[in-house]
User: Which sequence fits this backbone?
């Protein structure tokens, strides 16, 4: 690992911890993504994490806060754009017809995207608006 990769790994660790400490499982390889997609039944919230400011100030806080809702997904997973590139690329293959976006969030069921929140619906929105977007999706798909 070169000095830049080491630096980015160290700097991104707190960003990873923010989600894993909230109950998210990290998918760091394409194989882990495949295993998740192929074997997971029920609903899932997939967060495409990022080092950008809108991930730190909006996406991660909204994802965590949304989990306090009565209806919530059965599974919580995350891939890290720019860090775990291959895993993120593999997850995006399952977001059929959706442009790559980070940060972003998908509510999935049995490997199919039911609701997607791209960066443009995160950036310049309030945390509460993003939470509402997520919890509305949970109401529709996770009850």
Assistant:
């Amino acid at each position: 690992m070169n000095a830049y990769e080491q630096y980015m790994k160290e700097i991104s660790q707190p960003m990873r911890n923010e989600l894993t400490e909230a109950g998210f499982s990290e998918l760091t390889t394409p194989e882990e993504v495949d295993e998740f997609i192929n074997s997971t039944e029920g609903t899932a919230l997939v967060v495409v994490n990022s080092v950008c400011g809108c991930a730190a100030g909006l996406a991660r806080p909204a994802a965590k806060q949304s989990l306090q809702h009565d209806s919530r997904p059965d599974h919580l997973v995350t891939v890290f754009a720019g860090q775990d590139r291959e895993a993120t690329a593999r997850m995006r293959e399952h977001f059929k017809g959706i442009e790559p976006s980070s940060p972003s969030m998908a509510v999935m069921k049995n490997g199919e995207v039911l609701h997607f929140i791209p960066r443009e619906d995160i950036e310049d929105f309030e945390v509460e608006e993003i939470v509402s977007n997520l919890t509305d999706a949970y109401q529709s798909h996770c009850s």
About this structure: The first helix runs from residue 3 to 20.
